[in-house]
Amino acid sequence: MMVAMRRAMIVGWLAVCAIAATAAAADVVHFRIEDTIQPASQRFIERALAEAELRQAALVVMELDTPGGLLDATRKITTAITGSDVPVAVFVAPAGARAASAGFFILLAADVAAMAPGTNTGAAHPVGGQGENLPEDVRDKATQDATAMIKAFAEQRRRNVELAIAAVKESASYTAEEAKTTGLVDVIADDLDDLLGKVSGTEVRRFDGSTQVLELGDPIIFRIE
Fold first, then answer.
1. What pTM was estimated for this model as a whole?
2. What mean pLDDT comes out for the span 1-8?
3. Long-range pairs for 95-98: beta carbons < 8 A, 24 or more residues apart
């Protein structure tokens, strides 16, 4: 009887330890975009988000440094982010990086918008594929469309709508400190470890209006190249 009880206690203790270990470690999928935003980067991001869902990850971190890119690819990327089962953090990093033009839309679409010190974002006024000015009628239509898009992201994520629109209509740009102070982004972090430490245990608002607590514990990082 005593032997059986001891065995039961040991098995029970091991089960508790296993549960505790599982709770203490969460999968975080991390990848980096350092390029223009175009169909190749769009497909890569979509694959990374699909991988995160398969792993049942607790968080995706997209490290971003881009001068901008194509609006069609941007729209597909932001749709993938807002529809992701796994919360997505877009992190403009390292120092000197930027999320300009298309990158600004991607940043504001994220569940967590984060920037490293010494980075910048904005300058999202629509231009042609080679950076040229568009004909007036095309420019006006593209600007109105882009304005509605960024307004929807800012409103749903409860970020600064006025400054988000100014980035599109007036090509306004913001440093990390300006963006954080004015409510355009949520976090300033030095690096990935600092970011994960700052968001772990915090509540994020998903795009559908629900909320979710980021229980990261001691995260296991899966890097996708």
1. 0.86
2. 48
3. 95/119, 97/34, 97/64, 97/65, 98/65, 98/66, 98/67
